[in-house]
Amino acid sequence: QASVDRIRGLGAECIVTEVNYDDTVRLANDTAQANGWMLVQDTAWDGYEEIPTWISQGYMTMADEAVEQVEQLGFDAPSHVILQAGVGAMAGGVLGYLADRLDPTKFDTIIAEPKAADCIYRSGTSEAGNMVNVTGDLSSIMAGLACGEPNPVTWPILRDCSRYFIAVEDKVSATGMRMYGNPLAGDQAITSGESGAITLGALNEIV
Length: 207
Prior knowledge:
TrpB-like_PALP; Rossmann fold; Diaminopropionate ammonia-lyase; 8 helices; TrpB-like_PALP_sf; about 45% helix
């Protein structure tokens, strides 16, 4: 409700649906077409690829800034990269940049997502490497990752450049949030949402 209130506080109309993310996207698309509006959405489908591509390219900025800071601090290039995925737009944009900027044979990428909405995991572990959709409720505390259909624009990047795919329970993200908020002495605390904390939570599970 807090997110809804913030959106409405900016003067926008906010409609809360009773369907999952992917069906909400379809509803938004139908509404946009009926009213002659432009849909700005980071997942893609046949005939709607340009704007999602731009959005994924925008996500590359985060990777560019991270690489710049690593170089300025004199650190070695990363050996492992953990990226969270919903439809895979952010993960694909960031990984595409890193694979182009760095030597992709020198780091391993892990894609993490909620077990309740594990379309990327199922796609990455499928025998043919084809996109696999997940339907149903998809409920997770990681609301920003509760998506059931991979983005076809970025899926080839995730398929070809990722080493591992994992799907985790909500408690893993909750642990990540606690670790960010209560770091070791000398480290800065980070206030992270559930979708952002899955990566640290997953790392904690792995090590």
